[in-house]
Amino acid sequence: MDENEAQITVESQTMTDIDNRDPKEIHAEGARVEFADVIAEPDGLHSLDFMWKVSYHTFTQTRRWIYRFFTFILGFPLSLIWGLLFACLSFLHIWIVTPCLRTIQFNFYCLVRPLLQLIRVCLLPLFRVTGKILSKVKLIIRKEGLSPVQLHHSGIKTNGWTFH
After folding, report:
1. Distance in angstroms (rounded) separating the CA atoms of residues 158 and 164
2. Which of 27, 54, 19, 23 is nearest to 39 (CA)?
3. How far apart are CA 59 and CA 54, in angstroms?
4. What is the CA angle 54-58-59, rounded to 5?
5. Which of its termini does the chain have fewer beta carbons within 10 Å around, N or C?
6. How many CA atoms lie within 13 A of 143 on its CB side?
7. Which of 142, 135, 145, 146 is nearest to 164 (CA)?
8. pLDDT tens digits, residue range 42-87?
9. How far apart are CA 84 and CA 7, in angstroms?
10. What's the DSSP call for residue 36?
């Protein structure tokens, strides 16, 4: 089985899995809003049990049927629009963006390689030395109850903290 046949098999398995409609869990967090996420009664303020059950049923059924209504009305046109958009983006990426980037990479390879060597030779040692110097710096933070005159002479004061 070649790669195209394997991809078609995976796509057909995904399409026929009617129970698991989010196999990659792209809506694991945001789109799953349950009754308890929206409505909660604190201790001491409870409605009648009957009203709580009716409210729960009303919430879940309204959410289910309004979602189905919008899916029925807008599902096909939006899937067509998204399919066209991603087809255009794929086309642009495959036939324009990637060849342009490869052309730039090919043409500027002779400039990029010496530039990378220059960075390795000049800047890398500078960054290493700076890192070693700064690794020896110690910052002592302490809270002091000093007067404004003492704070002025002893360091910088921010919200009661003095830095030396």
Report:
1. 12
2. 54
3. 8
4. 120
5. N
6. 2
7. 142
8. 888 888 889 999 999 999 999 999 999 999 999 999 999 999 999 9
9. 20
10. H
